[in-house]
Task: structure prediction
Amino acid sequence: MTRPLPRAGSGAPHRFPVVVVGAGPAGLTVGNILRAASVDCLVLETETREFIEQRPRAGVIEEWAARGLEKRGLARNLLDRAELHTACEFRFDGERYRFPYGELTGSHHFVYPQPLLVTDLVREYADVRGGHIRFGVRDVRIHLLDTDRPWVSYTCPETGERQVVHCDFVAGCDGARGVSRASLPPERVRIARHDYGIGWLALLAEAPPSADCVLFGCHARGFAGQMPRSPEVTRYYLQCPPGDDPENWPHERVWSELRERLGAAGVPPPAEGRLIETRVLDMHDYVVEPMVHGRLFLAGDAAHLVAPIAAKGMNLALHDAFLLGDALVARLTTGDDSGLDGYAQACLRRVWDYQEFSQWLSEVYHGTAAGDPFRAGTTLARLRRLFTSPTAAAAFAEQYLGTAARY
Result:
């Protein structure tokens, strides 16, 4: 059961120290950090609880991020149920090349689908820690951000009435199309954007993975990727033209391309299964600066997007949430402003590090399909170097795991 809002007189506003807009991994983590410190807050979410707990999204969590959740009492199910991945596999030139990054670094990935993490975070916030949360709200608006008395309004889904919530701070965790980013004055915002000029057909299949690790197929017909989600469900990606129509990819074509692009000597073809999700992602990145405006602090996709090329998005959202949650607690419990003052700078160092790695990895994935013999040749040289140079292997492993970005 979600905790009801405190009673207010007819038309009277509510008040919370913090309003969190968006109940994704970032918003729910911020809310949980606040509640653990006995700081009251209100989380507003436009979707239903059932929807956010079932929405297919990312599933790779870097070890530092899992330990950050564990430190805050938010990783019990993750640590008990997640699969541990210590290697990935590249397939190119008709051969397979296993990359044992766990042996090189002593670190690993956790594979734990985002809907499961969101379910855990909602339960902990609303049902265990007694946090206030409203689902299905409409027309959220943020007001007076340039003052020390901001407020948020929204339409109640049950009554259709406007509700007003006064607060000290707003955590904007509602993604690229949310109200938080839209509330920034356009003349004060710089959005640095990069378009890769390619698309990925994102597939979720009711089929077991064909290998015990993530697979990267670098092929002249285009990139293909396999990301295990569970023993019964597998995420696949196929490079396609940007803006392609999923209807152009019937079952037979999908599995034919996966067999071709992930094929290598001595390996079985992917196990076929029903496709339960098919959508096209146009590969692009962006970074919004500033991440802070007045009393509004952006986190997660509201502030930056990194294409799923390197599986970094959810990890960046958690990094923001750890910093923002801890900084808000320090400010509201002890008056310490240092965390909030340094929040954006601390976030952006890791954001730009991950953006650079995503660009580098994109060339590895897509260079062989560029139709340019020179790019294809240099891409294959880069791939071979990973398996012949210990220095190149160590550098890749650090960036792939996020262990190089210690800030």
The chain is about 35% helix and 25% strand. Residues 7-11 have pLDDT under 50 and may be disordered.
